[in-house]
Amino acid sequence: xxxxxxxxxxxxxxxxxxxxxxxxxxxxxxxxxxxxxxxxxxxxxxxxxxxxxxxxxxxxxxxxxxxxxxxxx
Length: 73
Prior knowledge:
By secondary structure, the protein is mainly alpha-helical.
């Protein structure tokens, strides 16, 4: 993904949520930068929880699919 595309997505996230998810500051002597806001940190935690729950809920089905594949040496 290009740097520009990543920043466009960050800008979109900041407009979609009630509070910004990323705080950024312009360059200059100290250069620019960005950091997750508390809302951004909560978003990442929530996403990780969704992934963990999905994995747990689908583990049996994923194992069944895996058992249908040809074993690799």
